[in-house]
Every structure is written in structure tokens, then in C-alpha cells.
Amino acid sequence: MGYGDFKLLAALGAWVGWQMLPYLCIFAALAGIVLSLSRFALGVTSKQIPFGPCLSLAGAAIYISQESKLVWLMLG
Fold first, then answer.
1. Which candidate, 65, 75, 38, places its Cα nearest to that of 53?
2. Which residue in 4, 2, 6, 8 sits closest to 57, CA to CA?
3. Which ranges in 1-76 belong to alpha helices (H)?
4. How many other C-beta atoms lie within 10 A of the C-beta of residue 52?
5. 4 CB-near residues (< 8 Å, 6+ apart)
């Protein structure tokens, strides 16, 4: 993780609330795994994988889904 990723995580924590940060990190890690596997399947062999887009995707998904309480009632 670069320094920009920490800043993005802090901004997302301000938007979605500190209670959602563990879910955000888990969803971002899962998105990173999917990105890594898809890059491997396509034959892209660079060593570094950008984590910012994964954080952004997870943050957007959590921010949008907070309007629907049904998703979060199922989780806890």
C-alpha cells in the first residue's frame, strides 16, 4: 500500500463511518484478489498491482449499500 492508499482509506472512513472500515478492507482485499487473478489469466506479468481502484470500488459499494439496510442486517 502506498501513501495515497492510506489517504483514500481515511477519506472513505469519513464517508462511510469507522464501523464499516473492517468491511471496507475485506471487500477491497477480495476485489484485489479478483483483479490479481484476472490479470494473471490475461497474462499481465507486472509485479505491482494497484490497490486504489479496489479501495474505491469497495468504498462505492459500501456507500451505496448503506442506503439499503437489508444488506447490513444480514451481516450483523
1. 38
2. 8
3. 3-16, 21-42, 52-65, 69-75
4. 15
5. 52
3-class secondary-structure state, position 51: coil
> Quick check: helix, strand or coil at residue 71?
helix
Q: Which three cell numbers stand for residue 57?
A: 470500488
Q: What is the pTM of this model?
A: 0.79
How far apart CA 18 and CA 62 sit, in angstroms, is 12
Query: 43 is written with which cell numbers?
Result: 497474462
CA–CA distance, 62 with 51 (Å, rounded to integer): 17
pLDDT tens-digit readout, 50-74: 889 999 999 988 988 877 666 656 6
Nearest to 46 by CA among 55, 32, 36, 54: 36
